[in-house]
Write a structure and sequence with these properties.
Shape: globular
Mean pLDDT: 95
Number of domains: 2
Distance between the termini: 35 Å
Strand order of the largest sheet: 5-9-8-7-6
Order of helices and strands: HHEEEEHEHHEEEEH
Number of strands: 9
């Protein structure tokens, strides 16, 4: 697992790169909204449907209301999306993690970060999955026995697919991406983003179970 110092170094590198880039140009590429306020340029980035502010020249990343601090991992994903996106539009064709560049190399990390937690939390309760996914802005799909798509970024959908299982086969799960995702994020970031998409649902599921 990366240490906190590694995350801080990754953020510092991304900030240094983005300081060289015009936010107005980035707005068009990334499909984010540009704003100018109090002598500062900024972008409103939608991260799983929630507003995040990236403000120049310091290239800070904050919640949309400006209050509190975002997890370093989330800040890095947002900065890396802005750094790496080519602006390529969605193709509408899905791939799984093994089909992204070097996906096989990161496969075990992807399974432990994303696929396994998704399966362990929701594999035996697809109704709970659909309830939680709907509450967090997921669009229900027709894949598997339960599926939902989340817009992680304006050009990056993430789709969860779950299968119920039967007497012959245990429950299963997968996470799919538009085939253009390597044009927006590195493979390591794709694994982290998949994990982030699952952890959000796990937290909400825990709260729902307590309230029921």
């Amino acid at each position: 697992m990366p240490r906190i110092d590694d995350y801080k170094a990754a953020r510092a590198l991304a900030v240094a790169e983005l300081k060289k880039i015009n936010p107005k140009r980035l707005a068009g590429l990334s499909r984010c909204e540009y704003f100018y306020e109090d002598d500062h340029d900024g972008l409103i980035v939608l991260f799983f449907g929630q507003e995040r502010l990236v403000i120049w020249p310091e290239v800070s990343v904050t919640p949309g209301d400006g209050r509190g601090e975002l997890p370093l991992t989330e800040q890095i994903l947002i900065l890396h999306y802005l750094m790496n996106t080519t602006g390529e539009p969605l193709s509408g064709r899905d791939i799984d993690f093994r089909q992204v560049p070097e996906g096989g190399f990161y496969w075990s990390a992807f399974v432990s970060r994303a696929k396994k937690p998704l399966l362990e939390t929701f594999g035996h309760d697809l109704d709970l999955y659909l309830e939680v996914a709907g509450a967090l802005g997921g669009t229900p799909g027709t894949l598997g026995d339960a599926s939902a798509t989340f817009m992680a970024f304006p050009l990056v959908p993430v789709t969860h697919v779950l299968w119920r299982g039967d007497e012959e086969f245990p429950p299963d799960a997968n996470i799919l991406f538009d085939e253009t995702i390597p044009r927006h994020l590195s493979t390591e970031d794709i694994a982290a983003l998949a994990g982030s998409s699952v952890y959000r649902l796990m937290g909400a599921a825990h709260k729902m179970r307590k309230s029921h």
